[in-house]
Amino acid sequence: MRLKVGKAGWLCWYVAILWQVGRADAQSLILGIPNADVAHKGVLEITHESQIGVRSPVTWNSFNIFTTGITDRTELTFSLINLDNTILPGATFAAGAKHIIPLSDGPAEWRLTAGANIGFAPRLNYQPWGFFPYSHLSCRLPGWRTRLTGGVAYGTPHFFGFKNKRPTGQEYQPADGVYMASIMAGVEHPLTKRLWLVADWFSGNQVQGALIAGFQYDWGPSALLLAYKLPNGSLSKNAIVTEVVVDIPYARKKTPAAH
What pLDDT does residue 22 have? Predict the structure, then answer.
């Protein structure tokens, strides 16, 4: 077993997250694909997701995302993704933005989402820069509060991984990486006021190509998600997925001056 994640370190991380305050209620989260909401203006939204492989040797991969709203419909994103316990050049720093366009004011909440991320993998010598543009359409089923999402994305190896694994010390080549367009879909259905059934899917044989299904629980200031990952092909792995999300306000709302 190669997993070397200290128990004390994980405990401190989760306690620190749960200690924060201010998560928005019933915000679209989903586990794998980009969600259909943006972070609130004046709020730092922190997301940590871990994927722990269930087969030996145990693998671990994580996605660490920091977002903040700059308008009511636009957010900026900064990420450290593919931070894992394998000796691969896949660890990527990424920055990007997402914008939502409301298409209706009714209970269906039709909206179009568009975004993109630029990634930098310092250990990927032949091509350190990559990108991940995406767009999807989403709506709610009136009377059910169920949100359905569907769209397309394109990813370079920085986001979709490698089809050929090189021994330690050998440089990766362009033919080793995955460059592909992918279909994405998601569903979020409320079971109770705080408990949600969530599932999403990326098409294709790539690192993110999988169905991830599980539960989201809004607990006080935080949201906790627990799910299972079923891969499409050999490049993705069966895994237990955990996610913690919290909103931290950093700008006070202005109060009207007294007259």
Answer: 33
Which residues lie closer than 8 Å to 15 by C-beta, 6 or more apart?
A: none
8 A C-beta contact, residue 184 and residue 151: yes
In angstroms, the CA 162 to CA 221 distance is: 37
- Buried b / exposed e over 60-97, threshold 16 CB at 10 Å, is bbbbebbbbbeeebebebebebbbbbeebbbbbbbebb
pLDDT tens for each residue of 45-83: 999 999 999 988 888 889 999 999 999 999 999 999 887
In the CATH hierarchy, which fold is given to the domain comprising 7-249? Answer: Porin (2.40.160)
CB atoms within 10 A of CB 176: 18
Indicate the domain borders of the chain.
7-249
The answer, as to whether pTM is greater than 0.85, is: no
